[in-house]
């Protein structure tokens, strides 16, 4: 029982990160209708920036804020320079998938070029040590992650549901054409959506870096879980992304503990199974809206 | 001038270039790269002589080249085979797969394990072809229901977990340690060294793959692949059984990757999990994109690109190759989305037009009025 509780707790802590990463994927998907395969590498790059600032003597929290700001600008630039030029074409997703893959490779190799493949030590934001809840122990960092993600999600919810900016963004995402006719600056909203997604990703990168050890390939598996979370929740649902993240985090941890074949090494398979199962059984995800094709 | 009329004809299916009949000059030529280039309509005798010439050169090369040249060129042919299969899937059929490294790995590991068990190494080829076809079919079944982004997502997930899966199955695959194999010496009557022999096996494979791919892409099946890519609903209305075709082409391209994987084992004589990760999967995509989506010859250009770029960039740094791949993917999408094959077609077209005896000389008047 205690093992189960412990795994559950760990699952929630990692699941919160998957959820936050999935959230940034969902933000981009809602804004541009594409999955940004470079999202993980953007977060990794931002984490490196945070580490670099920290190494230069900036306080850790300030370093993370700086990285988030730079990520915001970088995300907006990526949208403007790489994605928008393809925006009006009807040639489908293929060019955009390839462009984001190219961006992914460039960021990955670029980070390796600048900082090398040796892992960097990043101190946990919330300090080391832990506390114990109902017999299971949770690290301060784990608890801090859960709280940060909760607060961040709350802020985003507030932004989207209670502010003019959020309303405009939702309008631009749900129907760009009629939003443009109603005077919504759709282009600027897309920029903002991408920037916001990149900033969320940067936060995730900085939070996860102490556990995964900062190095250019750190995000590959995290991105996989985030995809699973976003698929499970539905690609157009921010709430779904967070719930999906928690479900994926918990089920991955439990499967790793209780299914001997999977064990600790092969937990990634859980993500693939979840993605396949959801796409086959309920392609729109738990919280997503059904789409209808019309000709 | 001839370029202009040319573009107007090809413009009908060019994505994104609505009424851009370029004015000629440098800018016009540059723009023409963003337009679908129809296949060069070379006369049959020219096609066959180019084909024969290439074969003669390709057979002559290994006989008086150092080992490393043969090794590199064998790898080019292996990548070309993967590229042809992937191009049938992505270029002609519009399904994107980022997971073909998994089928490549399957082929490579089937070869390594069976050869280690004492199988004759050529017998491994049909086994790997069949296994990868079946695996591709099973994995492609969801392709009936998934499209575009979702398929990319699932196959990317497949590519990411492949190394982990290989390590997990360490009872068969020896996990992280990998498997070394030794090929038996080539038959004495050939008088060839092992690298030359393996090169020639790869050459035979790539020629067969070339012929099969051409037959498929220019024939009935090819037309239905393109129809599904361009508008699935309409093609279904016209009687194309799209789900069956999509699954079959996914399985076939997986078999191509499996075949290439076996050849990889012949050439490298070592398999290990970390060779088959996401980097390889994206390199495969680079073959198709750099070479030219929806062309058969593109796979060969693309294969040269991914084999030789790391060699050229090695002096800059370890990660420079990855950076160049990524940059090339973005650049090609922006500047010439139809790849090197598109460039070659655009450059050679004015020349080919002057050669008499082309097929379209006979049919053109009926087509364009």
From TrEMBL, chain A:
GO cellular component terms given for this protein? plasma membrane
**Assigned protein family:** Belongs to the binding-protein-dependent transport system permease family. LivHM subfamily.
- Which locations, inside or outside the cell, does it occupy? Cell membrane
Can you name this protein?
Answer: Amino acid/amide ABC transporter membrane protein 1 (HAAT family)
Spell out where the chain crosses the membrane: 12-29, 60-82, 94-118, 138-160, 190-210, 222-248, 269-289
GO MF = transmembrane transporter activity
Q: Could you confirm whether the keyword NADP appears in this record?
A: no
Give an example GO biological process: amino acid transport
**Keywords recorded for this protein, A-Z:** Amino-acid transport, Cell membrane, Membrane, Transmembrane, Transmembrane helix, Transport
Q: Does the keyword Heme apply?
A: no
A Pfam family cross-referenced in the UniProt record is BPD_transp_2
Q: How does it sit in the membrane?
A: Multi-pass membrane protein
Automatic annotation (TrEMBL), chain B:
Q: One GO cellular component term, please give it.
A: plasma membrane
Compositional bias (Basic and acidic residues) at which positions?
1-11
- What is its subcellular localisation? Cell membrane
Q: Which UniProt keywords apply?
A: Cell membrane, Membrane, Transmembrane, Transmembrane helix
Q: InterPro entries of this UniProt entry?
A: ABC_transp_permease (IPR001851), LivM-like (IPR043428)
Segments spanning the bilayer are 45-63, 69-89, 96-115, 121-141, 148-166, 196-213, 248-269, 275-293, 323-348
Membrane topology category: Multi-pass membrane protein
Region described as Disordered: 1-23
Q: Name one GO molecular function term.
A: branched-chain amino acid transmembrane transporter activity
Major place of localization? membrane
Write down the PANTHER family for this protein, in alphabetical order.
HIGH-AFFINITY BRANCHED-CHAIN AMINO ACID TRANSPORT SYSTEM PERMEASE, HIGH-AFFINITY BRANCHED-CHAIN AMINO ACID TRANSPORT SYSTEM PERMEASE PROTEIN LIVM
| Name of the protein this chain belongs to | Amino acid/amide ABC transporter membrane protein 2 (HAAT family)
Q: Which organism is it from?
A: Antricoccus suffuscus
Source species taxonomy: Bacteria, Bacillati, Actinomycetota, Actinomycetes, Geodermatophilales
């Amino acid at each position: 029982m205690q093992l189960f509780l412990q795994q559950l707790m760990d699952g929630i802590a990692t699941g919160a990160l998957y959820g936050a990463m999935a959230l940034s994927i969902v933000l981009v998907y809602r804004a541009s209708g594409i999955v940004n395969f470079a999202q993980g590498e953007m977060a990794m790059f931002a984490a490196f920036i945070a580490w670099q600032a920290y190494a230069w003597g900036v306080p850790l929290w300030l370093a993370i804020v700086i990285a988030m700001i730079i990520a915001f600008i970088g995300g907006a630039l990526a949208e403007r320079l790489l994605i928008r030029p393809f925006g009006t074409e009807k040639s489908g997703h293929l060019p955009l998938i390839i462009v984001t893959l190219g961006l992914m490779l460039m960021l990955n190799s670029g980070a390796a070029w600048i900082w090398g493949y040796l892992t960097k030590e990043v101190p946990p934001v919330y300090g080391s040590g832990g506390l114990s809840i109902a017999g299971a122990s949770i690290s301060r960092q784990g608890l801090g992650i859960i709280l940060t993600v909760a607060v961040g999600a709350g802020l985003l919810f507030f932004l989207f549901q209670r502010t003019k900016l959020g309303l405009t963004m939702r309008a631009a995402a749900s129907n760009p054409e009629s939003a443009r006719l109603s005077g919504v600056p759709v282009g600027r909203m897309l920029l903002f959506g991408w920037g916001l997604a990149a900033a969320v990703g940067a936060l995730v990168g900085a939070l996860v870096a102490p556990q995964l050890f900062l190095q250019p390939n750190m995000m590959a598996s995290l991105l996989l879980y985030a995809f699973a979370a976003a698929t499970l929740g539905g690609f157009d649902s921010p709430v779904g992304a967070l719930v999906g993240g928690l479900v994926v985090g918990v089920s991955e941890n439990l499967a790793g503990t209780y299914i001997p074949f999977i064990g600790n090494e092969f937990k990634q398979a859980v993500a693939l199974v979840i993605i396949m199962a959801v796409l086959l059984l309920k392609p729109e995800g738990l919280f997503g809206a059904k789409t209808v094709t019309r000709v | 001038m001839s370029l202009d009329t040319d573009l107007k004809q090809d413009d009908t299916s060019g994505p994104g270039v609505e009424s851009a009949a370029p004015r000629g000059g440098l800018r016009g030529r540059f723009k023409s790269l963003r337009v679908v280039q129809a296949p060069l309509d070379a006369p049959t005798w020219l096609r066959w002589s180019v084909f024969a010439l290439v074969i003669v050169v390709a057979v002559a090369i290994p006989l008086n080249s150092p080992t490393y040249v043969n090794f590199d060129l064998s790898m080019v042919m292996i990548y070309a085979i993967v590229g042809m299969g992937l191009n049938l899937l992505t270029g002609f059929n519009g399904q994107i797969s980022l997971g073909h490294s998994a089928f490549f790995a399957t082929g490579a590991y089937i070869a390594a394990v069976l050869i280690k068990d004492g199988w004759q190494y050529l017998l491994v080829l049909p086994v790997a072809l069949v296994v990868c076809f079946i695996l591709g079919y099973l994995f492609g079944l969801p392709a009936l229901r998934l499209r575009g982004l979702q398929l990319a997502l699932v196959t990317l997930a497949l590519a990411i977990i492949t190394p982990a899966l290989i390590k997990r199955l360490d009872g068969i695959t020896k996990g992280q340690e990998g498997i070394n194999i030794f090929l038996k010496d080539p038959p004495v009557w050939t008088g060839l060294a092992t690298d030359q022999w393996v090169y020639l096996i790869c050459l035979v494979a790539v020629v067969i793959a070339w012929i099969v791919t051409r037959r498929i892409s220019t024939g009935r099946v090819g037309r239905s692949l393109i129809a599904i890519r361009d508008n699935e609903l309409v093609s279904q209305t016209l009687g194309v059984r799209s789900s069956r075709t999509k699954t079959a082409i996914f399985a076939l391209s997986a078999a191509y990757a499996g075949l290439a994987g076996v050849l990889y084992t012949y050439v490298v004589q070592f398999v290990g999990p970390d060779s088959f990760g996401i980097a390889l999967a994206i390199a495969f995509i680079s073959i198709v994109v750099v070479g030219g989506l929806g062309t058969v010859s593109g796979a060969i250009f693309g294969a040269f690109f991914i084999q030789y770029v790391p060699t050229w960039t090695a002096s800059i740094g370890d990660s420079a190759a990855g950076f160049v791949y990524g940059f090339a993917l973005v650049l090609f999408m922006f500047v010439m989305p139809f790849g090197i094959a598109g460039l070659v077609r655009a450059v050679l077209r004015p020349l080919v037009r002057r050669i008499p005896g082309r097929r379209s000389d006979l049919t053109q008047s009926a087509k364009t009025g």
